[in-house]
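Worked example

This section walks through a single chain of length 217. The input is the sequence exactly as stored; nothing has been trimmed or padded.
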Amino acid sequence: MSGNPPSVQAPAPDALELAALLCSRVCHDLISPVGAIVNGLEVLDDSSKQEDRDFALDLIRKSARTASARLQFCRLAFGAAGSAGAQIDLGDAQNMARGHLEDEKTKLAWNLPRVLLAKNRVKLLLNMLIIAQQTIPRGGTLTVEPVGEGEHLSFRVVAAGLNARMPQNIVEMLSGSHAGPVESHGVQPYYTRLLAQSCGLDVTLAPEGETMVVGAI
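Given that input, the structure is written out below as tokens.
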């Protein structure tokens, strides 16, 4: 019989490689605002014109706020965020999500109760939001809805925006069916699947009408 040979699934990254891939992801998120701060400082050094200095100071302020918001978000989404077994306030998670994800194009509708929840469940939620944001590259609304209640509370994130789309390879990363090695651009959905598994959940991405829905059940 003819046909394509079955795909061979690459081995999962070990702990050191996974840590390196996540560090690369965080650095990628910070390069842009930190680079803008450097550019602003160079303008201050090179120009004595007041309009140039005003522009540079405004750029530095905005970029510093962006870098700070991304650092706080990444610390919770990817970092240790407390000791093993720690709980995190969903209100704090909301503030970090708004600081990182909201801008003139993208808004966040947060319909979750303010409760303490296991650390990995909160980390899972923040990573689900990152995936949902990627489905609306032209902006829109990310709506976070509860699934269940109490310590077993889970989430559903609905992304609504113009030309919402399914990003390449994310579904395969979330399901564990990807055939190639995990690389820096794919480590975030891979890590999201690991977080879901640690909570006894499966995370999915699927279209629902004109929206994209990231769910964990």
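What to look for: The chain has a mean pLDDT of 89.
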